[in-house]
UniProtKB/TrEMBL annotation:
Protein name: Uncharacterized protein
Highest taxon of the lineage: Bacteria
Organism: Candidatus Kaiserbacteria bacterium RIFCSPHIGHO2_02_FULL_49_16
């Protein structure tokens, strides 16, 4: 049943604008890569960021409530 639904969707998607088709292909590729992945492997940049965060936490360097609230206000439009 699901296979038939997917087949029908793909057939309809062939009539979609190119950008929508590319988005569908990108999303499907992400899902497929997650299914086949045994474990996530962080990039060197991500690992460096984690190390920085752990160092700052050990040093007691945390954002104040005032700073956190300011960020939320900025992005949430409050």
């Amino acid at each position: 049943m699901i296979a038939k639904m997917l087949k029908n969707l793909i057939e309809r998607a062939e009539t979609w604008p190119r950008e929508a088709q590319e988005e569908l292909a990108h999303i499907a590729s992400e899902i497929e890569s997650e299914i086949g992945a045994d474990a996530y492997h962080a990039t060197p940049e991500e690992l460096a960021g984690v190390d920085r965060g752990l160092t700052e936490a050990r040093e007691g360097r945390f954002a104040t409530d005032k700073k956190v609230n300011a960020v939320f206000s900025k992005f949430l439009g409050s």
